[in-house]
Amino acid sequence: MCGVCGIVFKDYSKGDSYSESVKGMCKNMWDRGPDNSDFWMGKHAVLGHTRLAIMDPSNSLANQPLESENWVLIFNGEIYNFRALRRKLELRGIVFRTDSDTEVLLNHIQEYGIDQTLTVLNGIFAFCAYEKSSGNTHLVRDQLGIKPMYFWLDPKSETFWFASTPAAIVEANVEATGQSWDLNKQAVFSFFHLGAPGARPSFFNKLDRLRPAEHMVVNNKLEVSKNRYWTPSFNKLDIEEAVMEAILMEKETHVNSSVFLSGGIDSSVMAAVLSDVKGFHLSSPEEKYAQYVSNFLKISLKVREFSNDIDFDKLLNKYSTSSGEASASSPIPLLVAELITSEGYKVAFSANGADELFFGYHRTTIPELKPEAFTALDYEQSSVKSHDEQFYHIFRDEASIIIPNFDRPKNRQNCRELYEINELDGDFPESAHHRWFELQTYVGCDLNPTLDFASMACSLEVRVPFLNRNLVETALSHDGNDFVSSDYGRKQPLKRMLKKFGFHPSLWSRSKVGFSIPDDIVKKRDDGINIHLDELEERNLFKLGISKQNSARDYIYLNSAIQAFNI
Predict the structure, then answer these.
(1) Which long-range contacts (CB under 8 A, 24 or more apart) does 444-448 make?
(2) CA–CA separation, 293 vs 288, rounded Å?
(3) Are strands 461-463 and 347-349 parallel, antiparallel or unpaired?
(4) What is the pLDDT of residue 550?
(5) pTM recorded for the entire structure
């Protein structure tokens, strides 16, 4: 993918000095875009870009920033429906110089304006579009929050900074000014509550993230406004067709593609539809199923084995210094991404979001489900009965976390406010609201940023077809009876697809297998957790309440946090 960054300022006489900070942010994000780096300077803004060349990779004209008559664009991501948008623009007489989706996005904004453009985009993206005529800077993030965007308004220097990672902003600002950054205790709480900093705040005080489907406008007086440009629409189309369409829509790339092939249902469906990809697997109990799928589809499979020489301190440091965040689950995608890029691949496909949309976990309540749905299958577990049970499956026990001088959420409503949960409007079934809750918390705050930062630390673009906006709307429009049956159990549409492809029923007729890193590999020393815990407590950042367990999970939480706090 890419890295985007910039500084908006009032005093145009200081543009040259700000351009040095923008170059510093680009340098910090080199792993996000090692193929090219450049910047653009205007009267009130400097924009920077680092490119990971995926679409039209050999064409230097596709390098960014790209400029039209009235707009300058820096773009991170992919527009999956850019071919259709391009044809529409060509009918209006627009001539293209590249085969990139970025040029299509720029010309669509030039022709139709940014608000109308946002209504038609299908993709994963975070971009900045600077409007020359007004001097307004527009920041936009995709509908499901796949690609990141961070921002900081500094009233002291009268500047507005933004970048794909908080690390880029913090390090460039420290280099330019020498100022120190306080930690945001709400983000610290979110990390120990969920496994990643949630909702808007980053770990660094007053450095926030753009929320999914958010459009922010910064004028040259540094006045900021924002709006949410998308919420799911009720769209009850055929689920299997929507899955096929999402995967095929995201298939186009001008470099070789790979797939995170876990051996589970979701990644097997992706591999079958994509057909001409290489599979990569992190050694697990499902390795034999991944091997079966690769043999059946006649695609190659590369496996990374767990071994005692894996340095988790080094992995967590790589993640946190690249991103400026912490994530308890980051070692898993990092290990796979390192393997994929070592084989020369720039693009991979992941099944992120499928479990949350298709009731893969028993933690998701399904109020409308017919009682007989699970009676014929002894390997499927019935869903929890209440939203409270779902809530406590997603979040860690709050009693084990004490954040000094921070008022923890006292009830469910407080937590909804903390994570900025939006409600669905329209005719959605009751279970859609429970799935939408998971997409905004566990997926949006943990899985999505973790996958992006881990993969981009290795210069790897990862596409997530199950979070395609059209598929999300279609899946949410169906109730649980369309996903769970006495014949197939959970994920009925995906299992039906596997059957149509010709796979043996043993691939899906089994209990779900969880995946975690073995304790003996993660925890190499008994005093590791206590060392990190003492450091954090000495800094008055947090205390463990009911437990000081030397578990692998706690080790990763604590180690990941201390690495990020020290960037």
Answers:
(1) 444/144, 444/145, 444/212, 445/190, 445/194, 445/196, 445/197, 445/198, 445/199, 445/419, 446/194, 446/195, 446/196, 446/198, 446/327, 446/329, 447/329, 447/352, 447/353, 448/144, 448/145, 448/146, 448/352
(2) 9
(3) parallel
(4) 47
(5) 0.95
Q: Which pair of structure tokens corresponds to residue 457?
A: 């630390």
Query: Within 10 A of 489 (CB to CB), how many other CB atoms are there?
Result: 24
Q: For residues 548 and 557, what is the distance between their CA atoms, to the nearest angstrom? A: 12
- The per-residue DSSP string of 105-171 comes to HHHHHHHH-HHHHHTT--EEEEEEEEETTT--EEEEE-TT--S--EEEEETTTTEEEEESSHHHHHH
- pLDDT for 547 equals 54
Nearest-angstrom CA–CA distance, 497 and 242: 12
CB 261, CB 250: distance < 8 Å? no
Cβ neighbours of residue 97 closer than 8 Å, sequence gap 6 or more = 61, 103
**Taking Cα atoms as reference points, which of 70, 81, 79, 15 lies closest to residue 48?**
15
Tokens 């921070």 locate to 406
Tell me phi and psi for residue 457, to 5 degrees.
-65, -20
Please tell me the distance from the alpha carbon of residue 557 to that of residue 534, in angstroms, as a whole number. 14
Question: What is the percent of the chain with per-residue pLDDT over 90, rounded to a whole number?
Answer: 68
Angle at 134 between CA 129 and CA 137, to 5 degrees: 30
Helix, strand, coil % in the chain, rounded to nearest 5: 40, 15, 40
Residue 506 makes CB contacts below 8 A (sequence gap 6+) with: none
Going by pLDDT thresholds of 50, 70 and 90, the confidence category of residue 525 is: very low
The token duo for 338 is 């390192």
Residue 449 has pLDDT above 70, yes or no: yes
- Which own/partner pairs from 550-553 qualify as long-range (CB within 8 Å, at least 24 positions apart)? 550/523, 550/526, 551/519, 551/523, 552/516, 552/517, 552/518, 552/519, 552/522, 552/523, 553/328, 553/516
Number of Cβ within 10 Å of residue 307's Cβ equals 8
Farthest-apart Cα atoms in the chain, separation: 73
pLDDT tens sequence across 5-31: 999 998 877 778 899 999 999 999 999
Structure token digits, residue 512 = 């779900």
How is residue 309 written in tokens? 């020489």
Summarised one tens digit per residue, pLDDT across range 196-253 is: 887 899 999 999 999 999 999 999 899 999 999 999 999 999 999 999 999 999 999 9
What is the band of 336 on the pLDDT scale with cuts at 50, 70, 90?
Answer: very high
What is residue 198's predicted lDDT score, i.e. its pLDDT? 79
